Amino acid sequence: MSNLLYDRLFGSHQGEQKPFLIFADGSQQSYDSFLRQTARFANVIQSIGLDVGDRLAAQIEKSAEALALYAACVKSGVIFLPLNTAYTPAEVSYFVGDSGAKLVVADQYFDLAAVASEHGAVLERLNADGSGSFADRAATASDIFATVPRGADDLAAFLYTSGTTGRSKGAMLTQNNLLSNAETLIGEWRFDANDVLLHALPIFHTHGLFVATNIILLAKASMIFLPKFSADMVIDALPKASSMMGVPTFYTRLLDDPRLTPDLTRHMRLFISGSAPLLAETHIQFESRTGHRILERYGMTETNMNTSNPYDGERRAGTVGMALPGVDMKITNPDNGEALADGEIGQIEVRGPNVFVGYWNMPEKTREELREDGFFITGDLGRIDEYGYLQIVGRNKDLIISGGYNIYPKEIELVLDEQPGVLESAVIGAPHPDFGESVIGILVADSGQSVDLDAIEADLGKTLARFKQPRKLVMVESLPRNTMGKVQKNILRDEFGSTFQG
Ligand code: MCA
Ligand code: AMP
Fold first, then answer.
1. Does 202 map to a domain?
2. Is residue 390 part of a domain?
């Protein structure tokens, strides 16, 4: 029996001397070298005692090693659980505990010894420079490993996505969820072996890990693999690339740079944007500065990519295009789930081989969002316009997207409510020129109590990743509520909406 995902993504690359990864300093790693490393890592994972279906949690900086760890999990049938490097140990503890990860692989500067021992997990170190206890074991391991058989419906990865209750949910993704989407996208976006993708995204989310990396592997193309987004590094690398994928903040930052010219991007074939709304204004400015129309697409952790603007047809600013081949999409009435006619605004539902199989250990949450007929309720609101393109007009879920990272207000409110002198809080997103949206925490003091905002900010840093921390904390007398007692966030958004403008 074969291992579907491994065979399709990596199977034919053994012995291939072509570069898979090209680093910022010009050095390269060939497919063959990458796969040897993958086999060594798979041997280490197995020697530590992980079996098929066990979880491996990874909090490591972006590196070739981090990708080899993903590949090694696929090869050995272990479920890969990548974690944002900005997460604090308190946040990581939840993911390790909830997933029951047997092995945590982390950079040396993440303080996870207590987390691992609390949950009975093995902790190994793998640093971005290739050192660490895991790397030491790999150095003496064999570069031959018999790929473990896995099929289409077997689980390949858990990606945690925050929940409206403040508890993150582990989205279970199968081999075929990942493979089918990569196969669709490679065709839709015309990737082939000649492509050189400029990769400046993090690799612990769907965008940088599955969309970008799986496509390149499938196409046997190359990636310029930058440690993170920096306008300087991207501008240096653009002349050597053919395509780039980014969140809208990448494009607004590039537009802020006078070095972005038609000349710099002349040979580029494709710029893709996703993970957050790309303002029509950004789309238009980018075209007038470079001559390129950004191709915007729409996806989710639970579903991979759902829709895309066309490669050849018109890429319409302010829309995310049409459903991808194999994806059914409908707009429904949020009250009763009935399909609405084109042009009407409702909730976006999708079904297809890309859609996950449920949330780990949360059957009720799964039932609430994934219908028996296979349609997944995205929580996004949209309409299909007269040209057949989907426009996302809002969200039916209380979610803030800052620079492409999702932030669930409930999670922050729970932390704010615990602060000394705070009676209650509300967290909202407000438009932000760099991050698209940014976080505001609105606090009400307990009667007669004083609230020390500086102390609160310092305390938040201990438990919440920096990107989730409110960029502004404000005090109000009381929160506006409707007759049902629900906080009226729309009123707060109206009041504080221009906090980050100008
Ligand atoms: C970093 N910081 C942030 C963010 N990122 N704050 C708010 N929102 C953010 N997104 C904080 C840091 O902690 C730091 O705080 C300061 O901002 C600068 O940090 P730095 O490391 O220099 O980061 P940056 O360069 O400002 O990062 C911005 C970024 C990055 C390049 C936009 O966040 C990024 O690469 N985002 C991509 C996210 C992504 O891949 N999303 C895909 C999810 P201080 O200033 O206090 O020091 S997958 C998905 O959504 C679906 C499936 C889809 O459709 O793709
Ligand atoms: P995540 O849970 O991190 O996978 O984020 C998924 C959410 O990102 C979706 O439900 C949308 O709200 C949002 N999203 C992704 N791509 C786009 C896009 N092109 N335009 C608007 N929102 C997007």
1. yes
2. yes
**Residues 64, 141 within the same domain:** yes
Classify residue 170: in a domain, yes or no.
no
Tens-digit pLDDT profile for residues 104-153: 999 999 999 999 999 999 999 999 899 999 999 999 999 999 999 999 99
The answer to whether residues 59 and 193 belong to one domain is no
Which phi and psi angles does 49 have, rounded to 5°? 110, 10
Ligand number nearest CA of 435 is 1
The count of structural domains within the chain is 3
As a whole number of angstroms, the distance between CA 165 and CA 162 comes to: 8
Range of the domain at 359: 184-395
pLDDT digits (tens, 9 = 90+) for 468-480: 999 999 999 999 9
- Indicate whether residue 320 lines ligand 2 (CB < 6 A): yes
Q: Ligand 1: residues within 6 Å at CB?
A: 86, 201-202, 205-208, 229, 247, 249, 274-275, 299-301, 402-405, 435, 466-467
Same domain, yes or no: 305 and 255: yes
100/57 Cα distance (integer angstroms)? 9
> What are the residues facing 323 on neighbouring strands?
307
Q: Is 307 in the pocket of ligand 2 (CB under 6 A)?
A: no
Query: 212 CA to middle of ligand 2, Å?
Result: 16
Residue nearest to atom 7 of ligand 2 (CA): 300
Tokens of 301: 């952790």
Q: Which residue minimizes the CA distance to atom 9 of ligand 2? A: 300
Half-sphere exposure of 478 (CA within 13 A, CB side): 6
Ligand 2 atom 5: residue of nearest CA: 300
- Please name the residue ranges forming H helices in 143-188: 175-188
Q: Are residues 305 and 412 in the same domain?
A: no
Does the predicted TM-score (pTM) go above 0.90?
A: yes
Tell me, yes or no, whether 284 lies in a domain.
Answer: yes
Query: Got the DSSP string for 104-173?
Result: EEE-TTS--HHHHHHTT-EEEE--TTS-SHHHHHHHTS-S---PPPB-TTSEEEEEEE--TTS--EEEEE
**How far apart are the C-alpha atoms of 137 and 211, rounded to whole Å?**
30
Ligand 2 neighbour 300 (Cβ under 6 A):
yes
